[in-house]
Protein: Inositol 2-dehydrogenase
Amino acid sequence: MLRVAVLGAGRIGSIHAANVVANTSSKLVAIADPIGDAARNLAERLDCEASLDPIATIERDDIDAVIIGTPTDTHVSLMLHAVSRGKAVLCEKPIDLDIVKVDAAVADINRLGGRVMLAFNRRFDPSAAALRRAIDAGEVGNVHQVIITSRDPGLAPREYLAHSGGIFRDMTIHDFDMARFFLREEPIEVMAFGSRLIDPTLEEFGDFDTVMVQLRTASGKQCHINCSRQAVYGYDQRFEIFGSAGQVLNDNLRSTTIRRWTRSATEVREPLMNFFLERYADAYRLEFEAFAKAVRGNGPMPVTVQDGRQALRLADCALESVLTGHAVKV
Amino acid sequence: MLRVAVLGAGRIGSIHAANVVANTSSKLVAIADPIGDAARNLAERLDCEASLDPIATIERDDIDAVIIGTPTDTHVSLMLHAVSRGKAVLCEKPIDLDIVKVDAAVADINRLGGRVMLAFNRRFDPSAAALRRAIDAGEVGNVHQVIITSRDPGLAPREYLAHSGGIFRDMTIHDFDMARFFLREEPIEVMAFGSRLIDPTLEEFGDFDTVMVQLRTASGKQCHINCSRQAVYGYDQRFEIFGSAGQVLNDNLRSTTIRRWTRSATEVREPLMNFFLERYADAYRLEFEAFAKAVRGNGPMPVTVQDGRQALRLADCALESVLTGHAVKV
Amino acid sequence: MLRVAVLGAGRIGSIHAANVVANTSSKLVAIADPIGDAARNLAERLDCEASLDPIATIERDDIDAVIIGTPTDTHVSLMLHAVSRGKAVLCEKPIDLDIVKVDAAVADINRLGGRVMLAFNRRFDPSAAALRRAIDAGEVGNVHQVIITSRDPGLAPREYLAHSGGIFRDMTIHDFDMARFFLREEPIEVMAFGSRLIDPTLEEFGDFDTVMVQLRTASGKQCHINCSRQAVYGYDQRFEIFGSAGQVLNDNLRSTTIRRWTRSATEVREPLMNFFLERYADAYRLEFEAFAKAVRGNGPMPVTVQDGRQALRLADCALESVLTGHAVKV
Amino acid sequence: MLRVAVLGAGRIGSIHAANVVANTSSKLVAIADPIGDAARNLAERLDCEASLDPIATIERDDIDAVIIGTPTDTHVSLMLHAVSRGKAVLCEKPIDLDIVKVDAAVADINRLGGRVMLAFNRRFDPSAAALRRAIDAGEVGNVHQVIITSRDPGLAPREYLAHSGGIFRDMTIHDFDMARFFLREEPIEVMAFGSRLIDPTLEEFGDFDTVMVQLRTASGKQCHINCSRQAVYGYDQRFEIFGSAGQVLNDNLRSTTIRRWTRSATEVREPLMNFFLERYADAYRLEFEAFAKAVRGNGPMPVTVQDGRQALRLADCALESVLTGHAVKV
Structure:
């Protein structure tokens, strides 16, 4: 029985906590959040202990693993503290917005032999995982091109955007990870465009709402990513992997399969499932299962801090490419 | 070069005439229609001779084959006249509305060794033909169930309906032929329901606008047919063949492949292609090619008068089933 | 907090018990099953009490509601016992295989003012429910035709089939309920065919493996149902509701959305989800939620014993139609 | 009646010639090709005159318009000769591989008031045209991103590739035109990657077989294009236009709509239609209709030499971007 504490009782912490409870070989021991009643309310609902002190929670002897769902700027210190106490860690992305800090953290974790998994949930989506298995099984032959469409249903609140680190580090970072997941090679060059087509005032933060990125690996494999902060029809999440023997794709998810035929249209389907908590509900559950299995079995972490570092590096390169108009070497 | 005359310069005659012109190894010699300017106008457009006399046209020495697209009650006499003069015939369905007259005509044609093909155009639709090839190739194993959806886009004019012979003989007759085409066995029992849900005044003709039929073969294969005189979304033509090894299906056709995604709906497609002249344009073309090929090569007719007779018999059985509430033996 | 006991610890009882646990406003108190360790094992896994005595479990004061998932021939007596003790009941279908016994039970329950819901799970499938909402909202106008495709992935074990009551009462009964759910009128006439195309030895039980049924309501609405005991591509569950203003349809479910494109084929998707426990997992959960809500709120039962009675009657009529070759009046 | 000559009796000339014949208000007068029997054979089949001399054919008094389907390096001189004789011209793409020569030709044509249409056939594809109409009608709101997938079914013969001008000028040039067609703004910046993943020996020509391009307009609209010389599943032609109010997409075409369901897969469809002559048959026909209509009505040319010039310029920019690793200003 894996004994788990969840740090952070917000939206993402709640998801992780519920998945710990639902996992029959794990036990949710405590939830820690320094802000107000968040931990207490969540703990009550999930029948576990609550704390205002993440550090003290990490240090409990009856905790084997911690899940970090706190604000980004606390990730590194909490992660290192947990690692220093021998706890396994599942940490939300990004590790940090500053790659220098991230590199130092990665080095520390490696030195300490820390067991840290980065929470790139999309890798655990059943369809994304099926695409990767198809690639691994050679179904597309050699991968030539990866096309990623990644669009949020609506602009996040201004306050959130102000501290998000920008669209590349906050949103596209998931797609950079998926690019690496499907390419199975490191991108070595990045080209990007950034526009403000939804909210021109994003210029205030030096941010964009509509971006396109191209990646290239040393062997010449190519990846395209398009992101928008606002797809009115819902949360658009599509992957297409094209290679010498064909291609594999996924589809978006909807709440039902109903199709409507009327005088003016046929095959009318619902808008897409909205938003990541619902769309990737299965992925979050399977992500924790993979983490728990790796911790219990002492196996390799399914996603590493190095993966988190690489995705952030690609995000930084994309931003640099937008600003310079050059292809940026990774 | 096959020398062809088209009898009947209406909607269906025009289609056939144009396909003769487009066929590189056939020549449209003449169009005959006793009514007004129809033949002259069509002949002018297609650059051939016009006549008001179908009989004289049949008898021309420079005609090898005739296509009969005249009113139903003239089919038998024209067909027999053409056969008696040694002309090959492609005749529109139905042969006649009276099965006694049909049986006599079939006997006469057989006695004379007549070369007559019945124009069940749907067999030549590329997708329907592909379904049949898949069945023949064993892709569905033993056929167990055939599901046919066949709905017109809108009620025909009252005047047409009054002389149509009723929905089973006029419209479902195509589906009875498709049932036989896909079952590859003769139905031996028919059950049917008929309703007037679109136009209750059809009771005046003893006709229906919404019907369901079930067919059974001696070996137990089953077929369902549903017909409606009015599908507001367009001309609905679907076949599904289910068997021991799986199933094969076709889809409807639309003019374009455009799909629309908006705030309220996704994957919105156009209404279906409308109506049979457009939907089955390829089928009409391929039907004539098959006829021309059979005539030139002296091969067996792809669809026979016996096929036309069987479809009419099933239509009669369906009507009897509606009226008696019994399964009717074919 | 609704206090629930589950009677029957088999496949279907396990599903219901897990849904009670997952429902945040219900409590699973006990599981009862007279056979061996079944109740004990399930109770252990779900952390509740176990019993070998369903009757004693019904009689517990700390039980508000019972879910009956025992063999069919015990349904009536357990249901009536629970009703007589004032317990709410969620009972698996069918009520009984004998309509005389069912009619008596319905009368008894009505006399006692019993609160019994019949477990026609498909009504709670999100897509089926969406179809019904669309009908209720007038999206298809007046319903004219309902087409139901319902195929199991494979023949049940011979032992199961021997006591199933036959395909109409065991399998098609779900489709009869869906027919009533979508038609929103009582069928008054039934026509049916039954064949043995998968296993001819079913003749021994007077049973069939491949059936087609047609239903008609007083106003002329029509419904077609096709069932097969063996669809090699998985559990096929499709509904199509056609009316004066268009149609609405659902699609089957698969585990992922992956599509494969190769040299020989495109858009290749997985086989269908298999079998009802997996395919209708959401439906079972929502069914219990609807039951719990009705019990707690003292509202009307979402599905009644009368619904169960009508579906059985249609099954009996279908069998009679197969045997007599007549349309059978309901 | 528009009197037309076709110059060039190869694959593309044959298509155009057949479309002239099929057009009821045009007349195919002559086909000219200096090489061997090509013109004679084609003219015989289409019942028109043949010539070995394109120049003399242009100069005939009974010719109103010429269609140029000759080798690329003859386009400019034939086009200018025709313009100087007052003939309308439909010229295959590209105008020339050398932008300097193209700019001079455009200037000459403008000076002479020449009536020249460039044959970007894809604009006339019914689905592409429907996408453009949807954009024009505001259905996607402001266009934000255009995604173009454009993959040939197989590598062209080495000899063809050697003189093609490279993938950007030969193949992607169509996609550059579609980008402009859908963006409705001029791209001002180009970023591109080029790889040799199918045939490394293309390095000999400085050519690529797998490319990705990003375009940006002054207002920040973005376009992605991916091309491959070899999609084993067929000729892949997809457009997706995303904007503030939603998106519109097209699908690929197949010869039939058949779908197969087996034990191991469902919804299995055919490979895509192959290759451009078949896939874009409707587009070629409608392209000529649009040309004929513009000539007869003295209306503006639907596609101009300026359009051809811009597409070539984007191709040159893409190549420069690959070679320099910079975004290239148009």
Remarks:
- The first helix of chain D runs from residue 11 to 22.
- The domain at 125-286+306-329 of chain D is CATH 3.30.360.10 (Dihydrodipicolinate Reductase; domain 2).
